[in-house]
Amino acid sequence: MYKTAGVTLPGGSCYSVGAGGHICGGGYGLLSRMHGLTTDHLAGVDVVLVPDGRNPVLAHASPQLNPELFRLCRGAGGGTVGIITAYYFDRLPAPPRDAVLLFLTVPWAQFLGAGGRERFAAWLGRYGEHSRRIQDDPRSDGLFTLLHVTHRSADMALTVQFCAREDDLPPGRNVATEADRVLRHLLDAVFLAPGAEGAVEYELASTSFGVGHAIVSEPATVSSRAYDRDLKVPGAVVMNWLDAVQYLDGSGANQRGKYKSAYLKDVPAAYAEGLYDALTSPPEELLGDELPEEGLPEGFDTTSLIVQMDSYGGTINRWANDADAVWQRDSQVKVQYQVYWHDPEQDPLYLAWLRKVYAAGFGGSAGPGLPWDPEGAHYQGCYINYPDVDMLEAASGGAGGAGGEASDGGAGAPADPATPASWLELYFGPALPARLVAAKAAYDPHDVFRHAMSIPTREPGR
């Protein structure tokens, strides 16, 4: 698309993710604050259905034709109603010409002394508040940040990308002058504080490593464009946008992994403090009864767990759209919990460790352990493109079984109002599940297309 039509999709950050599932799950990426989600540009789909349970039928869905089927294909996840054979898009955005990148290291040591927990929480709070503050500034939409919050055994990192709508820039401005303004505001807002004791230190990370993709033959650290001189932020570099995309997305060895997700409207202190407690604790302590008698195996990698806090908001939240399955249009941070390992025999340990870290931010044993609050003040649930079967049981204490089958969830609706009615509500909000289930029942009544987290043919608990 980039080379043949001069356009791009505003989604993706991992080179190995296929477009098919990425788009129908509400895919997003480093250009989404500027241009919205991939589904926001979707005009129609061709999808193979099996309505009688035996004979395939090709159908077209759009806002005008089969609109509820179209909704299922715009954010409800893949493999839930049929096989999508074609995507149709409205006019797609032109890619940026250039990108500004900045890489920072944030040492953990500064948070480990007296008052470190509160300082850490204030810092993450400022990170979320900065996103909220620039929500109504379209000239900041090209800013995307990825904050890697790690276990204390490895320092944290912040990756920053800025792209500009260059045709909309005021006279005399370019991507470098805009980046200088936007990046300085980011650094001041996140790392400075009213008191000197609250300021957070960071270090410039090296940008001298090679590009991790075979398409780029040489390290693309700094472009030769004349406006490099306009970029005053120390450590920031300008490069061709396509080079920047590939620079940020190097490949690595195959490994095992687990992911969890959360949408945050802000970063409340209780969340940040719970996260701090989990990430500064030895895994043995956090695992508790789930730790085997022999303890952790040799080589257990505490640096392999990352809580990645990505930018959200911007155009995503301003996009007027009531025809999709993405209800998270008021969040500012999208969190991806991830952990990696190699030995299949260590699956239970790494999975349990990630579950403990995840729950700690949302109240742990004292709360629901989910990104959910009944008034919707802080959280907007989870992202279906990071499917997490743990949520089938965590939401409503077990309501909503796997494989398209709905369990009765015990007594039905949960007694705790702080818990979503089912896993569907956690992913699609309070209003959409009934419509998604009705559409599934209409277009795939025999549940031909099903997996652990596909839309069921009837609502959980009913």
Automatic annotation (TrEMBL):
Source organism, top-level taxon: Bacteria
Biased composition, class Gly residues, residue ranges: 397-412
Name of a matching Pfam family: BBE
Domain Berberine/berberine-like: 382-456
Disordered: region residues: 397-416
GO terms assigned for molecular function: flavin adenine dinucleotide binding; oxidoreductase activity
Cofactor: FAD
SUPFAM superfamilies: FAD-binding/transporter-associated domain-like
Alphabetically ordered keywords of this record: FAD, Flavoprotein, Oxidoreductase
Family per similarity comment: Belongs to the oxygen-dependent FAD-linked oxidoreductase family.
Entry protein name: BBE domain-containing protein
Organism: Rothia santali
